[in-house]
Amino acid sequence: MTYQGSCHCGRIAFEVEGDIDEVMECNCSHCSRKGFLLWFVPREQLHQKTPESDQATYTFNKHEIKHQFCPDCGCQPFGLGQMPDGPPLAAINVRCLEGVEPAELTIKQVDGRSF
Ligand SMILES: [Zn+2]
Prior knowledge:
Shape: globular
CATH architecture: Beta Complex
Largest sheet: 5 strands, antiparallel
Order of helices and strands: EEEHEEEEEEE
Oligomer: single chain
Strand content: 35-45%
Mean pLDDT: 95
Number of strands: 10
CATH topology: Metal Binding Protein, Guanine Nucleotide Exchange Factor, Chain A
Bound molecules: zinc ion
Strand order of the largest sheet: 4-9-8-7-6
Low-confidence stretches: none
């Protein structure tokens, strides 16, 4: 399955391959404020259709995850990071994907506030 994703205004557009088996809802200070439902995929399953130079980047804490957001509309469709053992991954905000109904997903609650 290939999902189409974008920010609200379309300045950031992308495709993601794979099947959404489970998404993560985290209660940390960052995820809770932005309301993320995150789907983690190997980075190569994310295909960006718009230039990375059009994205702004936010980092905090250990600055290991590059949270990519649109400087025009403010949506944050994905973050880029690495697995603990090295391989690059992408954390897709499934709220920015077309045809995904959050109420139909299996949502895993993660207690990031306690990490
Ligand atoms: Zn935008």
